[in-house]
């Protein structure tokens, strides 16, 4: 089930929220209800994955108990933690990598690998693995005491608002919220607004941009023998993809944060206008913050240890980005994307780019070029398509520069392009703050106009959802 | 920040009120549909099928769904767009709708399909019959359609060209409706609807007369020696101005597509038929004159004027001409384009069997041609329908 579906908005959401608030008298019952709703949400992707998920939850819950008991006995907990983490990683490997690897080996050696290559990854398997590892490590580090209630633990692993697009949670951050929280009217109203904004970004901007990006990248995949993609068309496709991925990911994140808030959860922000960054380092401190935070906490910190020098920093950053690339999927292009990011981050660190006296405009242009080229690695899927698209983009494929189709696409979708670009920058929140702080008639006007604008946004979302069932997000989700 | 909170609160109140009321009403009105779809599941279907069914109904049917399509269409017009549904449908400078397509049209399987038609011909001719392929027009006509901007046109004429080329190579006779209509007195805007994929009923009549001519000229089968049946003056024409929105228009919504004039043509002479047809595993039998037996007037209420001919595309149908037991017997393997043409042909035949492989239920064509003796087997498709399912016969 997708958040941006009529099923979710008009059936699942009202029932889940309605029953949740009817159970206000008992936090435990509320959690049980949220767990049931999450399992039902998960069941929409198939019954078999639910069974796997329950087994995975039981396994990790059990391993948590083992680690805690060993701690109480003052025995070494490292082996238990290592075993638990390895089991989680093996499961991730089986579901994420075995199928494409088997396909590759099968085609290379002409073997029948259908049984292995048809294994389908359960929804959110990477996210579930990261949540599980965070739980085990936080208990191991004694950052937090284990919550003995299996319902609360299961809810931490598969709470439906975060299951599709994150944010990635760290156990120590949320364990107390699961056990004790209070959803106020302010939480509810802010959550609703956030959810609708996320829906708008996803349905009105990301889905429209995805159509354009998909067509152009597909055309590029065919280019040469049947058609060609001029450089301007490739650029339009790339910009469309950049807008698709930002509004898709941040839209899902907004929906997750909004839904969480409706149920009284306060998660950390996951996006902070990364396209307005002034360096690559700044970009990755604003983009998928929870992913980087997770890797910092559970990969970089242990790798750096106490005595870290420049060499260690380079090596560890490289390892971290390699792992992030691997986590995205079994494609060389993802690994290259990880390395691409790593190179720029290390380069900026070495030359102390943040402290250099360069004005913001060239800095932003540099970040945009870095980001756009990075998305080519991310989107193209294989090395051959990567090289073809790069050649198209730089006019090295006998493909020319100018394209009527590029102009046509911009003309047909100019409103979405404009909205996509404007809402990828902090202009709207700055304007909102300005109106609120100004007091007087503007503030009053804002309090009238804002609910109307939100209502219009919701109506537009429903109108567009009724027309299309296309969801490209799941294919290009960061996790 | 008070105002910000107040603004959010105001929207949240609006949101839960409207969402709550709408969700309840939506569920209440969709309940029979849920029950019906879930009732169609068998005992062997698992929980996954139940989930799939619930999801399908919830996402595909909404209270006020048509109004939402209409609103979407209005928005498209307001934004000055020439495409709808992510370039699924595009609008040319004359306001005519067509399918969009970003990718090169491939014609790779047409040789195989032509070969199957040839094998069909071999089988039928052994039993004394003949086979003719009728190529229906594509939506896109290079000489008429005009796109001032570089919209991705779905020009499928190459498929037709390839198909006819291979048919000719395999010595299968064919009728190219593109040529027929170009040589007719009809103007291009008269043989296409703006909002539909089909040719107009007038164009269909034109192709019908051409077919009768072909049968007479090339097969010595003179079905209309007095040129009575092929004379449009012997037919009643009713005009429904601006009242037809075809399949493309229904998808985009009428504000975007506009509406077409629909000219309904029916014989102004005595007729008597029995039509049996199958839809959703139910068999229907209708008897009466042309208007009673061959036209499904219930479709008119939904605006499906074109589909009212022979009740549209159904997996199987048989038309018996009660006034002429001695006429030839025909088999049509076709798509929805052929329906008006078959109705005009019905007064001259004793029996017409119609099989539509694309109508969702598999009918064994080979069994039919072995069981019955047909004087002519007509295979008719528009290029967009020239697919594997459409030629699911005589696969060797």
Question: Features of this protein?
Answer:
heterodimer, A: 479 residues, mainly alpha, 22 helices, 0% strand, B: 396 residues, alpha/beta, 2 domains, eight-stranded mixed β-sheet, three-stranded antiparallel β-sheet, 13 helices, 13 strands, 39% helix, 18% strand, globular
Largest sheet report of chain B: 8 strands, mixed
Low-pLDDT ranges of chain A:
none
Tell me the radius of gyration of chain B: 24 Å
For the sheet with most strands of chain A, the description reads: none
- Estimate the global geometry of chain B from the Cα principal axes: globular
List low-confidence stretches of chain B.
none
Q: What is the β-strand count of chain A?
A: 0
- Estimate percent helicity of chain B: 25-40%
What is the terminal-to-terminal distance of chain B? Answer: 75 Å
Largest interface: A-B, 59 and 50 residues
Task: Provide a quick synopsis of the model.
Helix content of chain A is 75%, strand content 0%.
Give your account of this protein's structure.
The complex is a heterodimer of chains A (479) and B (396). Chain A has 479 residues and is mainly α. Chain A has 2 domains: 6-180, no CATH class; 187-476, no CATH class. Helix content of chain A is 75%, strand content 0%. Chain A has 22 helices and no strands. In chain A, helix 1 packs antiparallel against helix 2 and helix 3 (47-72) packs parallel to helix 6. Chain A is globular. With 396 residues, chain B is of the alpha/beta class. Chain B has 2 domains: 1-63, no CATH class; 110-385, no CATH class. Chain B contains 13 helices and 13 strands. In chain B, the strands form 3 sheets. Chain B has an 8-stranded mixed sheet, with helices on both faces. In chain B, strands 1-2-3 form a 3-stranded antiparallel sheet. A two-stranded antiparallel sheet of chain B has the order 6-7. Chain B is globular. The N and C termini of chain B lie far apart (75 Å). The model of chain B has no long low-confidence stretch (mean pLDDT 90). Chains A and B meet through helix 1, helix 10, helix 18 and helix 21 of A and helix 1, helix 2 and helix 3 of B.
């Amino acid at each position: 089930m997708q958040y941006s579906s009529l099923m979710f908005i008009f059936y699942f959401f009202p029932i889940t929220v309605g029953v949740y608030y009817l159970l206000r008298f008992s936090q435990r019952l509320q959690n049980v209800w949220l767990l049931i709703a999450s399992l039902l949400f998960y069941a929409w992707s198939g019954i078999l994955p639910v069974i796997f998920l329950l087994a995975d939850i039981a396994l990790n819950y059990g391993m948590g108990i083992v680690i805690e008991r060993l701690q109480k006995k003052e025995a070494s907990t490292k082996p238990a933690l290592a075993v638990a983490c390895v089991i989680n990683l093996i499961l991730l490997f089986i579901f994420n990598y075995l199928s494409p690897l088997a396909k590759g080996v099968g085609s290379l050696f002409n073997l029948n690998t259908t049984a292995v290559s048809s294994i389908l990854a359960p929804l959110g398997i990477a996210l579930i693995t990261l949540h599980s590892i965070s739980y085990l490590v936080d208990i191991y580090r004694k950052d937090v005491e284990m919550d003995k209630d299996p319902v609360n633990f299961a809810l931490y692993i598969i709470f439906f608002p975060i299951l599709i697009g994150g944010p990635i949670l760290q156990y120590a951050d949320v364990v107390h919220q699961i056990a004790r929280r209070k959803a106020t009217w302010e939480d509810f109203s802010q959550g609703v607004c956030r959810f609708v904004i996320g829906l708008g970004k996803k349905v009105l901007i990301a889905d429209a941009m995805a159509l354009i990006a998909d067509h152009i990248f597909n055309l590029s995949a065919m280019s040469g023998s049947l058609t060609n993609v001029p450089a301007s068309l490739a650029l339009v496709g790339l910009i469309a993809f950049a807008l698709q991925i930002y509004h898709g990911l941040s839209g899902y994140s907004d929906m997750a944060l909004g839904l969480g808030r409706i149920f009284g959860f306060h998660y950390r922000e996951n996006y902070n206008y990364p396209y307005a960054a002034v360096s690559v380092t700044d970009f990755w401190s604003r983009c998928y913050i929870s992913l980087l935070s997770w890797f910092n906490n559970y990969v970089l910190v242990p790798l750096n240890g106490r005595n870290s020098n420049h060499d260690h920093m380079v090596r560890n950053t490289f390892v971290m980005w390699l792992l992030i690339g691997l986590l995205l999927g079994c494609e060389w292009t993802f690994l290259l994307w990880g390395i691409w990011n790593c190179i720029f981050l290390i380069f900026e660190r070495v030359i102390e780019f943040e402290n250099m006296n360069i004005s913001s405009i060239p800095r932003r242009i540099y970040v945009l070029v870095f980001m756009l080229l990075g998305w080519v690695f991310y989107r193209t899927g294989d090395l051959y398509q990567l090289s073809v698209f790069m050649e198209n983009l730089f006019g090295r494929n006998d493909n020319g520069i100018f394209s009527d189709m590029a102009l046509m696409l911009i003309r047909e979708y100019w409103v979405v392009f404009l909205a996509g670009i404007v809402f990828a920058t902090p202009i709207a929140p700055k304007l909102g703050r300005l109106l609120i702080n100004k007091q007087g008639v503007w503030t009053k006007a804002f309090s009238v106009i804002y609910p109307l604008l939100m209502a219009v946004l919701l109506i537009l979302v429903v109108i567009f959802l009724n027309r299309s069932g296309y969801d490209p997000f799941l294919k290009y989700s960061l996790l | 920040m008070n105002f910000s909170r107040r603004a959010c609160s105001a929207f949240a109140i609006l949101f839960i009120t409207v969402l709550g009321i709408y969700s309840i009403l939506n569920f209440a009105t969709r309940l029979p549909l849920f029950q019906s779809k879930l009732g169609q599941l068998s005992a062997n279907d698992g929980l996954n099928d139940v989930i799939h069914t619930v999801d399908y109904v919830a996402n595909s049917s909404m209270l006020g769904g048509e109004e939402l399509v209409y609103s979407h269409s209005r928005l498209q017009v307001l934004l000055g767009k020439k495409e709808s549904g992510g370039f699924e449908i595009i609008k040319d400078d004359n306001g005519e709708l067509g399918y969009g397509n970003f990718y090169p049209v491939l014609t790779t399987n047409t040789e195989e399909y032509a070969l199957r038609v040839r094998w069909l011909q071999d089988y039928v001719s052994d039993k004394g019959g003949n086979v003719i392929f009728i190529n229906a027009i594509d939506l896109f006509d290079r000489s008429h359609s005009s796109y001032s901007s570089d919209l991705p046109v779905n020009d499928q004429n190459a498929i037709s060209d390839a198909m006819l080329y291979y048919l000719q190579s395999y010595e299968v006779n064919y009728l190219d409706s593109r040529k027929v209509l170009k040589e007719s007195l009809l103007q291009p805007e008269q043989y296409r609807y703006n909002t539909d994929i089909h040719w107009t009923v007038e164009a269909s009549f034109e192709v019908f007369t051409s077919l009768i001519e072909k049968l007479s000229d090339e097969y010595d089968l003179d079905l209309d020696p007095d040129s009575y049946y092929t004379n449009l003056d012997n037919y009643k024409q009713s005009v429904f101005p601006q009242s037809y929105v075809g399949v493309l228009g229904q998808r985009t919504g009428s504000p975007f597509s506009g509406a077409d004039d629909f000219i309904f043509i029916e014989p102004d002479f005595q007729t008597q038929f029995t039509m049996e047809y199958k839809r959703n595993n139910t068999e229907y039998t209708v008897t009466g004159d042309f208007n009673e037996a061959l036209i499904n007037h219930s479709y008119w209420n939904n605006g499906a004027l074109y589909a009212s001919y022979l009740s549209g595309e159904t997996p199987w149908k048989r038309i018996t001409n009660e006034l002429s037991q001695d006429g030839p017997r025909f088999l049509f393997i076709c798509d929805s384009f052929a329906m008006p043409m078959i109705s005009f042909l019905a007064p001259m035949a004793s029996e017409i069997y119609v099989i539509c492989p694309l109508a969702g239920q598999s009918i064994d064509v080979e069994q039919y041609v072995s069981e019955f003796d047909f004087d002519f087997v007509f295979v008719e498709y528009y290029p967009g329908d020239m697919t594997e399912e459409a030629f699911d016969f005589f696969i060797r």
